[in-house]
């Protein structure tokens, strides 16, 4: 049976392709979904890609992941920089013994001052930044490596 992995995308990532294409590229969320599902299948992972602009929804997804033992790949988007609620929820995923990989399409450290701090990184298994959609592939590989040993 393949391992289920949820790829969670935070606020404004539903606007991929339209939003600052110079920063985030021209591919949209549907393309990200298609790519992640395909990369997952190659790795023996059953990938579900989600997006929400709602902090509480994202927190609840973390609770469910911890309860149902589902590894997470997360692009927390702007929540990265200030959501202690999401950081606490991500901590619970780690406490459940599950990998939680943080991904950013851009390299936030090379951008605005407020993007230099991530409240998620301290509770993430690892963080991948600045590689565009390819970062999600690396994150899925990391999950497969961790869960399959
Ligand atoms: C982002 C970087 C964040 O600073 C920003 O708020 C996003 C996207 C990225 O993927 O590069 O929405 O997480």
TrEMBL record:
SUPFAM superfamilies (alphabetical): Type II 3-dehydroquinate dehydratase
Domain of life from the UniProt record: Bacteria
Catalyses which reaction(s): 3-dehydroquinate = 3-dehydroshikimate + H2O
Site positions per UniProt: Transition state stabilizer: 19
Keywords: Amino-acid biosynthesis, Aromatic amino acid biosynthesis, Lyase
InterPro entries, per database record: DHquinase_II, DHquinase_II_CS, DHquinase_II_sf
Pfam annotation, one family: DHquinase_II
Pathway: Metabolic intermediate biosynthesis; chorismate biosynthesis; chorismate from D-erythrose 4-phosphate and phosphoenolpyruvate: step 3/7
Top EC class for this record: lyase
HAMAP family, A to Z: AroQ
Family of the protein in this entry: Belongs to the type-II 3-dehydroquinase family.
Self-association and partners: Homododecamer.
Xref: NCBIfam families: aroQ, PRK05395.1-2, PRK05395.1-4
Role played: Catalyzes a trans-dehydration via an enolate intermediate.
Protein name: 3-dehydroquinate dehydratase
Species, as recorded: Bifidobacterium santillanense
Highest classification ranks of the organism: Bacteria, Bacillati, Actinomycetota, Actinomycetes, Bifidobacteriales
């Amino acid at each position: 049976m393949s391992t289920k992995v949820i790829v969670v995308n935070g606020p404004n990532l539903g606007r991929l392709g339209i939003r600052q294409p110079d920063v985030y590229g021209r591919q949209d969320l549907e393309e990200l979904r298609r790519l992640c599902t395909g990369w997952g299948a190659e790795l023996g992972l059953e990938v579900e890609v989600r997006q929400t602009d709602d902090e509480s929804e994202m927190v609840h997804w973390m609770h469910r992941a911890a309860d149902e033992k589902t590894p997470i790949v997360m692009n927390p988007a702007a929540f990265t920089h200030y959501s202690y609620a999401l950081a606490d929820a991500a901590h619970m995923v780690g406490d459940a013994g599950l990998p939680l990989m943080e991904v950013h399409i851009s390299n936030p450290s090379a951008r605005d001052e407020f993007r230099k701090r991530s409240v998620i990184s301290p509770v993430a298994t690892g963080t991948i930044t600045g590689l565009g959609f390819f970062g999600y592939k690396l994150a899925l590989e990391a999950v497969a490596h961790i869960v399959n040993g």
